[in-house]
Every structure is written in structure tokens, then in C-alpha cells.
Amino acid sequence: MEKTSKIISRDRDQWTSEKAFVFSMAAAAVGLGNIWRFPYMAGENGGGAFIIAYLTCLAVIVLPVMMLEVGAGRLAAGNTVHTFRQVNRLGTAYGWFVVLLTTVITSYYLVITGWTLGYAVAAWRFDIPDFSDFTAGNNSLWYFMAVTVIAAGLLMYGVKAIEKLSKFLMPALLALIITLVFIAARTSGWEEAKTFLLEADFSRLGESRLWIFALGQAFYSMAIGQGYLVTYGSYIPTRTNIPRACLLVAGTETSVALLAGFMIFPFVFTFGLQPDEGTQLAFSTLPSVFNNMANGAVLGILFFSLFFTAAFSSCLAGLKVIISSVSEELKIRDRYAVAVVAVVMIILGIPSALSFTPVQLTLGGKPFLDVIDQFGGTNVVIFSGIFGATLFCWFVPAHRVETALGARSKWWVWRIYIVGRALPALVLAWLGWLAIAG
User: Fold this and answer.
1) In this structure, are residues 43 and 275 in contact, taking their beta carbons and an 8 Å threshold?
2) CATH fit for domain 2-437, picks 2.60.40.420, 1.10.4160.10, 3.40.50.620, 3.40.190.10
């Protein structure tokens, strides 16, 4: 493993510093994982009860697995498939499964990022539409294709382009979200939003569905089981302390997710909308906000421009996972890999884009995009994250992981191996309990 890693790492880019890695990794997940997905998942799953379950899953399970994936990327210094191949033969198949999962998720990420671009363009025209008006035509389809082409063009320039974008993005986006939270605190729906988010119905904590969605969102927010952490970890500088970097990323992600809830739900209740509106929650709520407040046009321009940039960075991260595997495993130039992956994204993303056009493509009576997100973004992501952690913790010696994590990481290695080795048994026990209870 060490010999192979050295050969691959000679030609691989690196983040310029630990700070650059933190900014880039946080930007990769903040855009859609937290501003878009977290509020709508909280809205559909009980608000405060969901937040308690989410934070519990994050602290107990997700943080150790996150550090493990970043450490594995540094250890192998290669793409996702290469990294898991170092574990055993089964790892190669699992590595390609992760790439496939990320391909599916990124295909609808690009659609939603297209929405953010469309709203940014509309905001600059001082005409922010309702979501129903925006999807009355084929905007969802055309903006999806535009975003895919723009992303492919930028990825021709490698990780340095992502790093430069992220250093500007994170501070600006965080400042604007905090500003909108202060504005939201002055609305009539603020108290109702606080109650919804901070007061939990503890009886709901006994619902298995709530915990599934909370664990899925925690995995989704931190990009577990999707190859992001492995790929970004493979570019990490030698002196980076991985536990410290991951704690900073997780703290940033969680803060933005909670702030996004306090930014959106006061307006949801103020304008009489439903918190369980689904994937379009942010896009149904915020246009009403900006169209009905003083200086709303300026704030709309700033928010949707930065929201697009944040969402776009998430797409770049997903595409980088896929492109690095295709390029290095199939032995083709990066630029050819970018072109191939862009074409695949357009083909796979069209059904999700069409679910919010006059075609209204559905699956089981729900928009195709919603179904794919809740299945792939929850159930499959959970399976992928658990399976990957199990592979590493049963087949990679603990001292190798400790070396990868950096100085003073023994306590985290102990936690990682307890979680990684116990997860399969706990999941099987939980499924058995569900079968008996059901």
C-alpha cells in the first residue's frame, strides 16, 4: 500500500494548507447539505426532535467515521476506488459502488444547483419568482444543463480552483446567513419557529423513521460514504491534524445547518407556509421573504448569488470524486474524464430536472427528484457509510490509521474502531427489533 501510494501521490495536487482543506471540505457540503436539505428534513420530521436525533448521531457515529475516511484518503493518496482496493478484493467493488452512488446524488445536486442559478439570475433582474412560476416552464432543465457545463469547465483546472472559490465563499455565506437570521428574529413567526426547532416532542424519539432520517442527514451533511472525504483527504498536506480539521468542518457544518433553520422557519410561519413542504422549501419561502421586505431586492441578489456559489461547490466536490476515479482507474487524461462525466451527468440528471417542469415526472406519486433524494440520500448513504467504515476497521491495522490521523490521535482511533466494528452488529440488532416490533 505504501509503495503504491507514493507512486500515485507524486502527480497529485495538494491543498496548500490545513486551513485550505477545512474551507474546501466545509464548502463542499454546506451549500446543499445544510442550507437546502437540513431545513426541509427538519421540517418533515418534527423540528426539535429531529435536531436532537441529528446531533446525537453526529457526535456518536458520524465524527469518528468522518475522520476515518479522511485518514484513509491520506493513507492511500489516490482516488476512491484505489483507496478501498488497498483493503481487500471486496474493497474494489465497494469503491466503484461509492462512485456510482456519488454519480446518482450529484446528478440531482446539479438540478438543484440549477435552481439556485436561476434564482440568482432572477434576483439580479429584480424579479424573484415563486417556485411554482419558476418551474412552470423548462427553467429546471436548462439551468441544470448550464450548471453542468460550467462545472465541467472549472474542473479542467483541478483542486486549486476549488480552493480559491471556497476561501471566498465560506466567510461571505456565513455572514449573510447570520444577517438573515437577525432579520428573521424580527418577524411574527420567530416565536413559533423557536418553539418548532427548540422544543422537542420526546415521544417522537421512539420513532425509527426519525432516527433513520437523522442518521442519513448526518451522513449526508458530512459527506460520509460518498467518496468526498476520501478524495479530499488524498490531497491533504502532510502536517494536517485530521481530528482537528474534521472537528472544525463538523462544527462549521452544524452551525450553518442550525442557522439555516432559524433563517427559514420564521418566514415559513410568518407567511403561513407548511414546514413539511419538501425539497422546494427554501425556494418556496425565501422569494416571499425578499419580495416583501425593505431592501429585499439587494438581499435577494446577495443570498441567491452566494447560495448558488455554495451549491456549486458541492457539485464540484461530487464531480471531483467521480472524475478522479474515472481518470486514474481507466488511465485517461483528466480533461477527457471531465467531458465523459459531464455527459453522464446530463443523461442521469434529466429525469430529476423534468420532475419540476410541465412534464412533472413522478415516481410513486412523488416528484422523481424527491424520491431519489430520500432513497439515495438517506438509505443508501447510511449503508455506504457503515459498510466503508466496517471494511477499514476490520482489515486495516489501527496503527496505520493513527499514523494517518496525525499527532495525539490515539483516543480518536480507539473511538473509530469501536464505532466501525460495532456498527454492523448494531444495525442487524436494530433491524431484528423492527421485525419483531412490526
Assistant:
1) yes
2) 1.10.4160.10
Contacts of 282 (CB under 8 A, 6+ apart): 35, 36, 39, 40, 264
For the stretch 197-209, pLDDT in tens is 998 888 888 888 8
Q: How far apart are CA 382 and CA 361, in angstroms?
A: 26
**Per-residue confidence at 353, pLDDT binned at 50, 70, 90?**
very high
The amino acid at 329: E
Q: In the numeric block, which cell numbers belong to residue 230?
A: 476520501
Nearest-angstrom CA–CA distance, 115 and 243: 35
**pLDDT single digits (tens) 84-105:** 888 888 888 998 999 999 999 8
Q: Which of 288, 276, 307 is nearest to 133 (CA)?
A: 288
The average pLDDT across 241-262 equals: 87
Q: For the chain, which residues make up each domain, given as ranges?
A: 2-437
DSSP conformational letter for 152: H
